[in-house]
Amino acid sequence: MKRMLPMVLGFASATFVSLAGAASAAGDEKLAAALPETVRSAGKLNVTISLAYPPMEYSDAGSNELKGFDIDLAKAIAERLGLTAEFQNVEFPQLIPQVVTGRSDLIMTAFSDKVERQAQLDFIDYFKTGNVFYSSTDHQGEIKTEADLCGKTVAVATGTSWVTWAEELGKSICPADKLITVIQIPTQAEHIMQIRQGRAQASVIGLEGLLDLMKQEPGKFYQIGQVGDVNHYGIAFAKANGELRDAVLATLDALKADGTYAQILDRHGLKEAGVEEFKINGSTM
Fold first, then answer.
1. Measured between alpha carbons, how far is residue 85 from residues 22, 70, 179, 223 in Å?
2. Could you tell me which of 28, 20, 17, 113 has the C-alpha nearest to residue 74?
3. How many Cα atoms sit within 13 Å of 7 on the Cβ side?
4. Can you give the pTM of this predicted structure?
5. Beta carbons within 8 Å of 15's beta carbon, 6+ residues apart
6. For the segment 47-66, what is each residue's pLDDT rounded down to a tens digit?
7. Distance (Å, whole) CA 210 – CA 80
8. What's the CA gap between 255 and 26, in Å, rounded?
9. Residue 258, C-beta contacts closer than 8 angstroms, at least 6 positions apart
10. Whose CA is closest to 277, among 124, 110, 112?
11. 159-183 per-residue burial string, b: 16 or more CB within 10 A, e: under 16
């Protein structure tokens, strides 16, 4: 789980952090024709994000250049539609207000498609995520499955839904006298330090976080067991913006058909997180 968002409306204060560059002259005319006139005439796609969450959206220290899977996919969508992608960075609680008040066209920032959010938004599910246990490879011989964590200590980010998930999973698979001990520690760097110092034997992270960690530090970390609590990130639109939603859905289908979607996933080491089919609010339309 990335971040939790209260369902409160208000006005967002957006920071414009990057432009994707000039709109492509090679945009697909048929796809572009399906755009709302206001978007097509403006020549830009206003994308709201909330920094920073590598590998999805982030910038390097001292740089304003946006990077990440969401950034690259948003640029590809805009380019295929003959538009320029313009990114607006807001605090996470302001994502929904930014879209429902019309200040931006869509949200694309590792934003979970949740039933309660569908009262205000429509989602195109485009990325699979979930919770995973992981550890350093020196534990690979003794800890292979979730059951091997019984009686061991797992470091988890303070106050996140991962805490409850790890505790409940432990209760469901471990003997009552050999439960998983969950310790809450703020950052991933501290979790890794706890593992390396022997104070914990594993930690919990989102699937994309682990894939990125294994890409950045090859051969040092591994996944324990299966992905749990599988859910999807969605591109979110105001309910009234169905025309744009459908144009973006058709564009995603085109990007998948020609291999662009897979190429962007591979570029960020996220192949396992790709979806077989793009769905609206978790259902095929």
1. 9, 12, 49, 35
2. 20
3. 8
4. 0.85
5. 88, 89, 90
6. 999 998 999 999 998 889 99
7. 30
8. 14
9. none
10. 124
11. ebebbebbbebbeeebeeeebbbbe
**Can you say whether the dihedral through the CA atoms of 237, 240, 241, 245 is positive or negative?**
positive
232 and 127 Cβ atoms separated by less than 8 Å: yes
Place of tokens 């409160």: 8
The CA distance from 182 to 191, in Å, is: 11
Encoding tokens for residue 258?
Answer: 């020609």
The torsion angle over the Cα atoms of residues 38, 40, 41 and 45, rounded to 10 degrees, is 80
pLDDT at residue number 159: 87
What pLDDT digit, counting tens, does each position of 91-135 carry? 999 999 999 999 999 999 999 999 999 999 999 999 999 999 999
> Residue 183 pairs with which residues in a beta bridge?
155
Pairwise CA distance, residues 128 & 110, whole Å: 10
Q: Which of 228, 213, 227 is nearest to 136 (CA)?
A: 213
